[in-house]
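pls design
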């Protein structure tokens, strides 16, 4: 995650990944945004599509066999037909919901996790010895050098060991 990914690549990975927590967040937030998304599809997308034909995507149908329509309502009375407009409307609703969940929930959460991971790696580095610890080590080394016999360093001493002097 240290390398920078494109936003669309991250969105694609989010859609293709089966992470349970992200899926649960998507379901909850998606349910909360259903009315907003439906309003966007009905108020913005349908009029754009309506420039080509009917504003209601449910009216877009294709007949697979000979179909007869009711002259008053325009509905198919018999035959086999596919309601591809309803499928298109549902697909648009899904994509808008997924985009809202990703850009408002998942992307900020991933950035927060990256910052936490970067901060944690800095916290795991060993601390430099304090002045008191260094002075204690120096004192122990000098005492050992003066007495010319190895002494047991104090509990606070670290890497400086005892030294013997030559007579």
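designed seq:
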């Amino acid at each position: 995650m240290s390398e920078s990914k494109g936003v669309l690549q991250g969105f694609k990975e989010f859609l293709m990944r089966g992470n349970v927590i992200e899926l649960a967040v998507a379901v909850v937030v998606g349910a909360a945004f259903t009315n907003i998304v439906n309003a966007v599809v009905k108020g913005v997308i349908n009029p754009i599509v309506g420039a080509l034909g009917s504003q209601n995507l449910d009216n877009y149908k294709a007949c697979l066999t000979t179909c007869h329509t009711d002259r008053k309502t325009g509905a198919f009375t018999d035959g086999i037909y596919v309601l591809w407009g309803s499928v298109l409307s549902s697909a648009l609703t899904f994509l808008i919901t997924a985009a809202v969940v990703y850009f408002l929930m998942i992307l900020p959460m991933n950035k927060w996790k990256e910052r936490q991971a970067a901060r944690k790696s800095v916290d795991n580095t060993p601390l430099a010895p304090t002045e008191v610890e260094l002075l204690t080590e120096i004192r122990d080394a000098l005492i050992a050098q003066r007495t010319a016999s190895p002494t047991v360093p104090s509990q606070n001493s670290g890497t400086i060991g005892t030294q013997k002097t030559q007579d």
